[in-house]
Amino acid sequence: MDILVWLIPLALFLGGLGLLGFLWAMRSGQYEDLDGAAARILFDDDDVRKDKR
């Protein structure tokens, strides 16, 4: 039972850190363009890479 004195606050602290990380990601625009990454894989960028060499 003594371990619960440590585990419950630790779980609450880690949950709060996760929530803060999620809120930071939402405010910094991490989830703004969900379709862009899915569509970006369809485009062929080989021509651009050859020009840089």
List the helices and strands and how they pair.
Layout lengths: L1 H26 L6 H7 L5 H7 L1
Description of the molecule:
This is Cbb3-type cytochrome oxidase maturation protein. With 53 residues, the chain is mainly α. The protein has one domain. It is 75% helix and 0% strand. The longest helix is centred in the N-terminal third of the chain and has 26 residues. The termini are far apart. The model has no long low-confidence stretch (mean pLDDT 85).
Distance between the termini: 64 Å
Q: What does the radius of gyration come to?
A: 21 Å
Question: Helical stretch count?
Answer: 3
Please bin the fraction of helical residues: over 70%
How much is the average pLDDT? 85
- H-E string: HHH
What amount of the residues lies in strands?
A: under 5%
For the largest beta-sheet, the strand count, sense and barrel status come to: none
Describe the oligomeric state of these chains in a short phrase. single chain
Supply the helix-strand structural class. mainly alpha
| Overall shape | elongated
Outline the low-pLDDT stretches. none
Indicate how many domains the architecture comprises: 1
User: How many strand units?
Assistant: 0
In short:
With 53 residues, this protein is mainly α. Helices cover 75% and strands 0% of the residues.
